[in-house]
Amino acid sequence: MVSIAIIDYGSGNLRSAEKSFARMAKPRKVWLTSDPEVVAKADHIVLPGVGAFGDCAEGLRAIDGMVEALTERVRNQGRPFLGICVGMQLLCAQGHERGVHEGLGWLEAQVHPLDVPPDLKVPHMGWNNLHIERAHKVLDGLDGEDVYFVHGFGAKFSGDASAIAASVDYGGAVVAAVARDTFIGTQFHPEKSQQAGLRLIENFLEWRP
Questions:
Q1: Cis omega before residue 27 (within 30°)?
Q2: pLDDT tens, 27-37?
Q3: CA pair distance 195, 146, nearest whole angstrom
Q4: Is 175 left (phi over 0), alpha (psi -120 to 50) or beta?
Q5: What is the pLDDT of residues 160-178, one digit of tens each?
Q6: For residues 206 and 209, what is the distance between their CA atoms, to the nearest angstrom?
Q7: Could you list the active site residues?
Q8: Domains of the chain
């Protein structure tokens, strides 16, 4: 039985994520994989993401059977899922970066450029104080903690925003985490967020929805 599958779909350097998860998962096995059959057997599934929304969506769909395996294992069989950065954004219906691109559609949200005052830099890069909007096992102990961001786009909800689990203030509220059913996503990078990030990874690996 595969323990933790980190999906490799060409989105960038995944080694830091792999190392952080391996550190917290011992003695369980962490697999960095592009094989849908491995994902279909995983106890926990992680979807990182670095780069443009459209490129990441295209890369994920280019792996034959990956979206289907991911959907079946998470949505139908109820296995825990964590999306990181663009991996979180891909949970949304569409991304508006260099055109309009289809996401997984697990959330009725859109990904748009950050709308911040002119004195703030985009991309949003650095540490921000996390505000938990609603309790979630994976976010236990993280309210008020500093976590690390690198992004120029963010999720926006025009209707039901009940999936927003955490936010940060960057010229206004920015979605920092989303959660629903058996999946959760973080706009920030747990693997770059030092002790707070390791706490989140540990929480995720202990999570049984």
A1: yes
A2: 899 999 999 99
A3: 10
A4: beta
A5: 899 999 999 999 999 999 9
A6: 10
A7: 85, 189, 191
A8: 4-206 (3.40.50.880)
